[in-house]
Design goal:
Structural class: alpha/beta
Strand order of the largest sheet: 3-4-2-5-6-1-7
CATH topology of one domain: Rossmann fold
CATH architecture of one domain: 3-Layer(aba) Sandwich
Distance between the termini: 102 Å
Shape: extended
Number of helices: 20
CATH class of one domain: Alpha Beta
Helix content: 25-40%
Oligomer: single chain
Largest sheet: 7 strands, parallel
């Protein structure tokens, strides 16, 4: 946190009172770097990670520079409707009476048209709906003097950059422009060069291509792809977090994961772009208020979701880019709070995550999938702690009377059965070998240092499965043959003991199975009548007679 104050940065008395009411005393690093040049009217090109306090960084200068005129003066573009609505709500907390037009998709047009007709000074929206209002002629940007592009790199990933350029081209030349982006790829740099004039470039220490939270613990879990949902159930049953945001790759996965969690005693809801806006708003409100414990969402639907004190973010498989993993993980560990980012990965994705850790300086704390036994032990410990802390005098007297007439052990066992009847204990899942959580460099280092080999030998694997062949080759004992190195008893047959003498090939006799076929000398000789006449050259086979009395026509070449 910065040692400066909002008053020293030049904020007005009204804004200082609103900040103090919300408990904001000192600005965060991104706010301390941007508020003063923003109040001076300078353009800003800011690289800062998600959850660093960017809304106040551009919101305070924007609100203080507004005039009393009733027409659109400031335009704020965000990649998703949730983020746009969050920005509007944040500005409303600072200036409650400020008219703000929220132009987002999935909601009815009349309220938006009414806000624009009243001349809202601030317009917050997504590129798609803003373009729609421009095409309809219901939005006038001729008097806009301030523009904010929030999470511009995400608008690039979602394919909105062309719409953003079209919108900026409709604004008169010379507006004050704030561009915020966690990363600065080439298209974003080109956009900034075209529309920003002599910007103040601010790159915070935690920003950049490999920006990572120091307050986030990265705890990946290795599990087969088809067991990810069950592994998640076991992990949540063991840890019992107060809330968790779970990311999936597809919309169908959100519904599948939410249904499996609910069936396992972990009530969850799903969120994706196909839901109506009213449903999405209701689900997000329940999650923010703590009424909903687990929320399963796609990356786009949860973009801009800001939950204070969110302890856990879960990735059901990692995204395709490191930057997206950073944005996902940034939903937790915000504003100095601690959080955990858990990724359920298969073997292939674990190699990608290891490469990211070396490339971006990630510290990975691998953990295994808990077993039902570990889950039951954790539940029993939590139950014991709760029992000892809630024993009143009346309950103690009632327990004393019950112990006089019943066996204590059977009584406690019966009470545990009643209490834990509806508690799930998870699934029995095989843990992946430890070697799959290590890179080949780690394995080579262990071998060089004389450590244990991470991979078992064939004899150890055969002994573990009871000397049975792998399932893909059929069950049963492994046969002993001249070309086999192992015997059914598991002993090893050296190569030098093989019998290398050539063996004559004996064709089996079809008439007597198991007996050798007789040689040609022992075969019975054919009868004389069956012996074919020898062929002599120059003798032609007589032509067949015609079926009727007509003479056969000579053959002619066509």
């Amino acid at each position: 946190m910065s040692e400066m104050t909002f008053a020293a940065l030049g904020c007005s008395e009204a804004l200082l009172a609103a900040l103090a009411k919300r408990g904001f005393e000192t600005p965060m690093p991104v706010q301390a770097a941007t508020i003063m040049p923003g109040l001076e009217g300078r353009d800003l090109l800011v690289q800062s990670r998600t959850g660093s306090g960017k809304t106040l960084a551009f919101g305070l200068p924007l609100l203080q520079r507004l005039s009393d005129e009733r027409h659109p003066q400031a335009l704020i573009l965000a990649p998703t409707r949730e983020l746009a609505q969050q920005v509007g709500a944040e500005l409303h907390t600072l200036v409650p009476k400020l008219p703000i037009a929220s132009l987002v998709g999935g909601v009815a047009y009349p309220p938006q048209l009414r806000s624009l007709q009243l001349g809202s000074p601030v317009v917050v929206g997504t590129p798609g709906r803003v373009m729609d209002h421009l095409n309809r002629g219901t939005l006038d940007l001729s008097k806009v003097s301030m523009i904010v592009l929030d999470e511009c790199d995400e608008m690039l990933n979602m394919g909105f950059l062309e719409d953003v350029e079209t919108i900026l081209a409709k604004v008169p030349a010379g507006p004050q422009t704030f561009l915020f982006s966690a990363t600065l790829p080439a298209p974003i740099a080109k956009l900034a060069k075209r529309f920003l004039k002599d910007p103040v470039q601010i790159t915070l220490a935690e920003a950049g291509e490999h920006a990572m939270h120091a307050d986030i613990t990265h705890a990946p879990v290795l599990a087969p792809d088809h067991q990810h949902v069950r592994a998640l159930v076991n992990l949540l049953l063991l840890d019992q977090p107060s809330a968790a945001l779970i990311f999936t790759k597809t919309k169908a996965q959100t519904e599948e994961v939410a249904e499996e969690l609910t069936v396992s005693g972990l009530p969850a809801a799903f969120l994706h772009g196909d839901l109506a806006q009213a449903t999405r708003t209701r689900i997000l409100g329940q999650f923010k208020e703590g009424k909903l414990r687990y929320l399963v969402a796609t990356d786009v639907a949860a973009r801009g979701l800001d939950i204070e004190g969110l302890p856990l973010v879960v990735h059901m498989g990692i995204p395709t880019q490191l930057e997206n993993y950073i944005h996902r993980s940034g939903r937790t560990g915000r504003a100095g709070a601690k959080g955990t980012s858990m990724a359920l990965v298969g073997f292939k994705e674990s190699r990608i995550l290891l490469a990211w850790s070396r490339r971006g300086g990630l510290q990975l704390d691998w953990r295994a999938v808990p077993t039902p036994m570990e889950i039951r032990e954790a539940q029993a410990k939590k139950l014991l702690d709760g029992i000892q802390g809630s024993a009143s005098a009346a309950l103690l007297n009632q327990a004393t009377q019950m112990l006089k007439d019943a066996d204590p052990v059977r009584l406690v066992a019966g009470l545990l059965g009643l209490v834990q009847a509806d508690q799930a204990s998870g699934f029995e899942l095989p843990n992946e070998p430890e070697r799959k959580t290590k890179s080949r460099f780690d394995i080579a280092r262990e071998r060089k240092e004389g450590g244990p080999r991470p991979q078992r030998t064939y004899q150890e694997r055969a002994a573990a499965r009871g000397n049975e062949a792998p399932g893909i080759r059929g069950a049963g004992p492994k046969p002993d043959s001249a070309f086999s190195k192992t015997r059914p008893d598991g002993s090893f047959k050296p190569r030098r003991d093989f019998d290398d003498k050539p063996r004559p090939y004996v064709k089996p006799n079809a008439d007597a199975p198991g007996a050798p076929r007789k040689s040609w000398e022992d075969r019975p000789k054919a009868a004389a009548s069956e012996t074919p006449r020898p062929w002599k050259p120059g003798v032609k086979k007589p032509a067949a007679k015609p079926t009727d009395d007509r003479p056969a026509k000579p053959w002619k070449k066509k």
